[in-house]
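Suppose a colleague, Dr. K., hands you the sequence of a protein chain of 71 amino acids and asks what its three-dimensional shape might be. Before reaching for any lab equipment, you can write down a predicted structure in token form. Begin with the sequence itself:
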Amino acid sequence: MAKDRSRVEDIADDMRDRAEEALERAQAAVEDGFDEAHRYLKRQWRERPVAVAAAALGAGVIIGLLIGSRR
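The predicted structure, expressed as tokens, is then:
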């Protein structure tokens, strides 16, 4: 009986370790994605400031209309 409990605890510990490692990898991937997106947006802002401002304004107007159209 104690042997079974020990084995279950070992399996649970192994699964916890794997889940923590997967979480750390996922967080690193998300951070890398955000960093890459930030660099891309900064480059676009330097190269095409008017187009970026117009796109941001358009997105804001669309979101505002969607939120404001609730009846």
